[in-house]
Amino acid sequence: MPNTFTPNGDGENDRFYPMGKGLGEVTVIRIVIRLGQVVYTRSRFAINNASYGWDCTFNGADLGMDVYSYYIEVPCPTGQIIKKTGDISLLR
Q: Rounded CA gap, 17 and 89, in Å?
């Protein structure tokens, strides 16, 4: 997962989304601000699909530069669930 993104409309790093090989579907992705409020959540979508990624908005408004936390679950073909957490920096 990248740890920085820049939603400035240039077509590069404009959305935060899970990427990987050999994986089919993201079970859930959540983006949370420091105080614990969920600002983005999405379930059951194809991995490597930027259109399902977070565009750094909340309730239609752009969020500011900050560090946000993420939580992602993706099932493997073996049945194991990959759970990934981390931080991502938003730069404007």
A: 14
Read off the pLDDT of residues 73-86 as tens digits, 9 standing for 90 and up: 999 989 899 999 99
CA 68 to chain centroid: 10
Tell which phi-psi region holds residue 13, choosing left (phi > 0), alpha (psi between -120 and 50) or beta.
Answer: left
Give residue-wise pLDDT tens across range 14-39.
Answer: 999 998 888 889 999 999 998 899 99
pTM, rounded to two decimals: 0.87
Sequence-distant (≥ 6) Cβ neighbours of residue 84 within 8 angstroms: 1, 18, 70, 71, 72, 73, 74
Show the 3-state SS of 8-20: CCCCCCCCECCCC
